[in-house]
Amino acid sequence: MSVNPKHIQVGMRVRGIDGEDVGWVKEIRATDILVDLPLARDVYVPLEAIQAIVDASASSAYHPHVVLTIPKARVGDMGWPHPD
After folding, report:
1. In the chain, fewer beta carbons within 10 Å around the N or the C end?
2. Which alpha helices (DSSP H) does the chain contain, by range?
3. pLDDT tens readout for residues 32-63
């Protein structure tokens, strides 16, 4: 089951399932999000690859962020598209 993109906001941090920072949400579309990867090409991550969206109301210890279903190290190996 994919997440509802209306709960994602531009600027949210994106983390891998391992808790490592991947980048930031740059754009939100109907089926994917554009993630700004530091020192790498931006990538469109499909909504199906998002495990959870943690918002500020969940805990004061966490800033809002998106959690992927994969660890940070695998993001570049997924074959996801890049913007032109």
Report:
1. C
2. none
3. 999 999 999 999 999 999 999 987 565 555 68
Q: Which CATH class is domain 5-73?
A: mainly beta
Indicate the pTM of the whole model.
0.89
- Model pLDDT, residue 84: 86
* C-alpha to C-alpha distance for 19 and 46, rounded to whole angstroms: 19
Cα–Cα distance measured from residue 76 to residue 9, given in angstroms and rounded to the nearest whole number: 23
Distance CA(38)–CA(7), nearest Å, equals 23
Cβ distance 43 to 82 under 8 Å? yes
Average pLDDT of the chain is: 91
The residue type at 56: A
Residues contacting residue 84 through CB under 8 Å, at least 6 positions apart: none
Residue ranges of domains in the chain: 5-73
